[in-house]
Amino acid sequence: MKYWVFVIVILLLVVPSKLSNRAIEHQHEPTHLSQDELNSVSREWSVHVAFVNYQQHLIDESSILENLPTSRSYTIADEQLEYSISYDITFASQSYASELEDVIMNSSFSGMETGSLLDEDALEHQKAHPNDPQRIFYPRDGRVIDAYLVEDWIHDNPVVEAPKPGYVLYFLNYSKLDSSDHSIEHWYDYHPADPDSEEEQDWFRLEWDNSLNPSVELQYPAFGGRYNFFVIDPSADQWYLRWARIWWDEGPDYSNSPEYCTKDLEDKMNSLNPEDPQRAVKLSRYLNEWAYDPVNYLFFPNQNSPTSFVDSGFLKGLVFAMDVDDGVTVDSLRWVTDAYMQQTYLEQLLPFIDWEVDIEFLDIAAYPDWDELFWDHATESSGKIIVDGLSMFNDIYENMRYQYVDIFAEDINVFGVVFIKKNMEMHVYGRQYTGLGGGGQTCIWKSWERYYRADGVTPKSGISSVQLHETMHAIGIGHTWDTHHYVGDFSLSPMGYFASYNGTGAFDKNWVQSTFVDQMEVRLASRYQKHAGNIEESALQKTAYAHDRILQYWGIAHHEYSKMNWSACHSALKDANDWLTRAIYSMYDQELPVIKEWAFIQNSSSEGQNILWAKGHDNLSGVDNVTAHIEIDSVETIYVCENHQGNWSTGIGAIPSDSYVRIWVKATDWAMNSAFSDVVELGVASAGLPFPEIIIVSVAILTIAAALFVWQRRRARPEI
User: Fold this and answer.
1) What would you report as the CA-atom Rg of the chain, rounded to the nearest whole angstrom?
2) 389-399 vs 368-376: helix axis angle to the nearest 10?
3) At 1, is the pLDDT very low, low, confident or very high (cuts 50, 70, 90)?
4) 13 closest CA partner among 603, 474, 471
5) pLDDT tens figures, 566-611
6) Which of 307, 354, 83, 344 is nearest to 195 (CA)?
7) CATH number of the domain enclosing 10
8) Contact (Cβ atoms closer than 8 angstroms) between residue 464 and residue 196
9) Do 317 and 435 fall into the same domain?
10) Same domain for 603 and 579?
11) Would you say residue 555 lies in a domain?
């Protein structure tokens, strides 16, 4: 047999991908889709509302569901995506309510000064006089309930199983834990924490993040996001809704604000006349205001756009230390954010694209263009650095951003800049803010003092949660709140204004991932409709086989979607689209691919990894996959090769030294035409088996001695 021998040095370890039989594709039970499912994409979601410790005769179901969305429609790639939303209501038994009460009591503690009370008059004053900081938080007594423990128990003991796809909205009533004069109240602790310092949050927003307002307790009357349900206890105490009513709304009477801002469940019940025939309706409309926000801002967020349908995401961040001459070194600030953590969060949020995060920590004095830009939009007044946030943001957007990210790319490209300087304030729209974001850019101006505890040494809060917040805006996600709608801010999400969280929650992930696969299916359906007629009329057996596979994987995708298993749905839709590609090419390409050359690189160590490399070519449809076939003592194993710019390779485990081995390569194009290389036989010298000529190559980096065999290109034979 004529052959050539080449020496190839491979410096990359290849991870083996092994199959135990000749079938490459995983087998599934066939699933049949209706013609309507093939021609359009629609989704049926459900919400189950579960009441715990409520008297059923006081709940008017139509009022509870009033104004809640029953459908949503989005335009994606010139196609309509329809959501239908249905609702069910159920009431927990009294025994369930009692068991949950036991959990609450065992997961809580009661004491003096365990919570915070809002001084609304002081807040009104500060709103009218922003340059006159006030103390607005004072300690209060009450019972603190661990929301994590309650949430875990409900997850393990649901009133009703969460619909798939869909959510459960729980209403709890534990008014019995409170005193009638509100001097003793209960609330939930949902453990907000800064992701950079890992400090539990006991501060609130920059206007009150100061010595006037120490140890602010973040009280929750609602919580959710670790699972697919949200819990509301209108009888629980809170101050955030009162604060939001004053800070975001227009006075003086705030008549447009929802009742839940100022009335808890006991207040509402006490305001109702027991003889009023509309009592149940009025109570239910009050509860409906609570329900509206999580349904519209968490479950089916109308403020969000469908996820950006892209291939990759890139976050480039610059963190400027501006007081190096004053002892604040660049290295001392490296804890304020972390590229690996940011990338991990983004990969958890949207795992279907490739993410890259690159963050640099810099001394601004070494970058005069940046230093000049900053001072073009900042002034010093009474020892304070006052930044004009909007003008600086626009200057960076127009003159700096393009130097760091591709501003014309269709993929996600976010450019973020952080300025860290002592005694700094950023002003925009007549108020102070920490950052601005939009158009794929974020800017953060956070004064050095706010990063640390009062000792100026202990880390308190970094900027990762702010950066994640702004990056999620670039993906298409809005806030969890809007004026007059604040309950969604109690969820585990970086998109709220109430608290910080370490990563993203279930509602964000469900929206981002489900709308991504929605768009995959819309595009698949549109592409399928263009070619379905020709595919169905084709007499080719391989085309019919591919068509069956399209429908099979498409059905699997629907099944996984119904289970809210987004990764499996994504994989099935990708497989369906690949089989559609094969079906299309199969009707026009009947030529075999060519295996141009290949090599088996044998490790001299008995325990080392061997490598098989091949190069294939196909003129029309292109090479779809290449597999290496290793038969050891009549037992065949198939390895799937990975493609690296036209070079296909796979790692192969150690081969016993006393074995009889046959090796060959199979290449298949996208039209499902397969070609095989010649079979090469290897054996031990004692067995008298023939060996090709061997060249031993020592690679010091990998400590590999390899024997390489590369055979002459031959016309491949078809599979029988």
Assistant:
1) 32
2) 140
3) very low
4) 603
5) 999 999 999 999 999 999 999 999 999 999 999 998 876 656 688 9
6) 344
7) 2.60.40.10
8) yes
9) yes
10) no
11) yes
